[in-house]
Amino acid sequence: MVIEYSGLTIGLKSLKSLRSLRSLESLTFFGIVFASVMMCAPSAISAQPNYGQEALVSMADMLRYQYAKSGKGKVPVVAPFKKFGMRHIRASKVLEEGDERTLWGYRVGANMEYDKSRQPLYRLFKKNDFASLAVIDYSANGSNKCELVFWGKKYYRRFAHELRRMGFGIRNSSTQTNVLEFRKKDTDVGVDVTIWPDIYIMTFLIIGGK
Predict the structure, then answer these.
(1) Which of 1, 12, 99, 207 could form a disulfide with 190 if both were Cys (CB 3.0 to 4.6 A apart)?
(2) What is the per-residue pLDDT across 180-192, written as a single tens digit (0 to 9) for each?
(3) 3 state SS for the chain
(4) Cα gap 37→95, rounded to integer Å
């Protein structure tokens, strides 16, 4: 007889060193529990968070798109999200008819416990790993808002570095303690980053060059 578990094959003849079958049952039980913990909480066991292949999001593309949406530029409004490797998400059970917001996602699932009566829309998304990323894009007809939703600190560091390289400065919000503001003189597009313990919301908005 042969027992297979997680790629490990154990022949009963080779188990003579075990004192009893109860020892084997304990070993198997421990293996099942350990495997369950590994599946449910990889970051708690591993020293490194679980990162997959990150989406190729560009801050320059996001800023250009937001500026085009404002109607101030003469370039056509073309959403860059497919170029980032994201897919369009249809959420008819959450977005009512006539809702002009569109959803995009990369390596995300649905939060089955989402309650739209008391939770913001970004809580609809559930990450697969720390490379997961989503977009809530408001109407392109003059809207001044687009939200980038992510869970990984690596994304924040990369995006913040790109913005600083483009000349954006960073400051604390005067009204919210968990919001950082990226601003550039004589630039109509600003970026606010709302930081919660479990999630980041990066909001692109028109600020009129403030």
Answers:
(1) 207
(2) 999 999 888 999 9
(3) CEEEECCEEEEHHHHCCCCCHHHHHHHHHHHHHHHHHHHHCHHHHCCCCCCCCCCCCCHHHHHHHHHHHCCCCCCCCCCCCCCCCCEEECCCCCCCCCCCCEEEEECEEECCCCCCCCCCHHHHEEECCCCCEEEEECCCCCCCEEEEEECCHHHHHHHHHHHHHCCCEEEECCCCCCEEEEECCCCCEEEEEEECCCCEEEEEEECCCC
(4) 35
For residue 30, the SS3 value is helix
CB proximity list for 35: less than 8 A, separation 6 or greater:
6
Residue 82: how many other CB atoms lie within 10 Å: 11
Whether the CB-CB separation of 145 and 120 falls below 8 Å is answered with no
Torsional sign, CA 153, 135, 82, 164? negative
What the block records as the tokens of 111 is 């939060």
Mean of all residue pLDDT scores within the chain:
77
Which amino acid is located at 158 in the chain?
R
Amino acid letter, 105: G
- Read off the tokens for 155: 């994304």
Biggest CA–CA distance in the chain, Å, is: 80
Residue with the larger pLDDT of the pair 92 and 110: 110
Higher local confidence (pLDDT), 199 or 209: 199
Task: Parse the chain into domains and list their residue ranges.
Answer: 2-40, 59-206
Q: Which residue has the tokens 């490990």?
A: 8
